[in-house]
Design goal:
Elements lengths: L3 H6 L9 H17 L7 H11 L2 E2 L4 E2 L3 E3 L5 E3 L4 E2 L3 E4 L4 E3 L4 E2 L4 E3 L1 E2 L4 H5 L4 E2 L2 E3 L4 E2 L4 E2 L4 E2 L4 E2 L4 E2 L8 E3 L4 E2 L4
Parallel strand pairs: 1-4, 2-5, 3-6, 4-7, 5-8, 6-9, 7-12, 8-13, 9-14, 12-15, 13-16, 14-17, 16-18
Antiparallel strand pairs: 10-11, 18-19
Length: 184
Amino acid sequence: MKTEKQKMLSGEAYRPGDPELAADAQRARAWMVRYNTTLAASPKERRVLLRELLAHVGEDAVIRPPFFCDYGQHISLGDGVFLNFNCVILDVAPVVIGDLTQVGPGVQFLTADHPRDPAQRRAGIESGLPITVGANVWIGAGALLLPGVTVGDDAIIGAGAVVTRDVPAGATVMGNPARQRPKA
């Protein structure tokens, strides 16, 4: 029989109030209290803290505080990744961000999802799907990436875009929902 955490990480329906998940979330909240006071610290000092919580932190990866996440331990950042102020990563499923990706302020990576059936929602059931972002991607301020989305290498996501489906490598998308812009 799977634990609620195992169900969560495999994309199955799970109960977020499970004691193991609650303990992991509390650990992340305590870490965020510490991390979000480090704005004046050097990127190197902040990377030490990032490595305490996140699954992987590549060389020269930067997250400018404040930063918010559910668990942290399901987030992997490649080398040279830059996340600007007020990034939110709901990591009930893995979030992988490739090397040299640049993320504007206020961007949200939302792996969490809720049942369409109202009885299941009332019962407190949730689920999630991973988000994967390739290398050298630029994500503009205020963009939202929804559960299960994959963004290919060298793509551009316009500011304020709502990414509801996969973005091919090298594509530029914008709008709500985000649509590919034709090449000039």
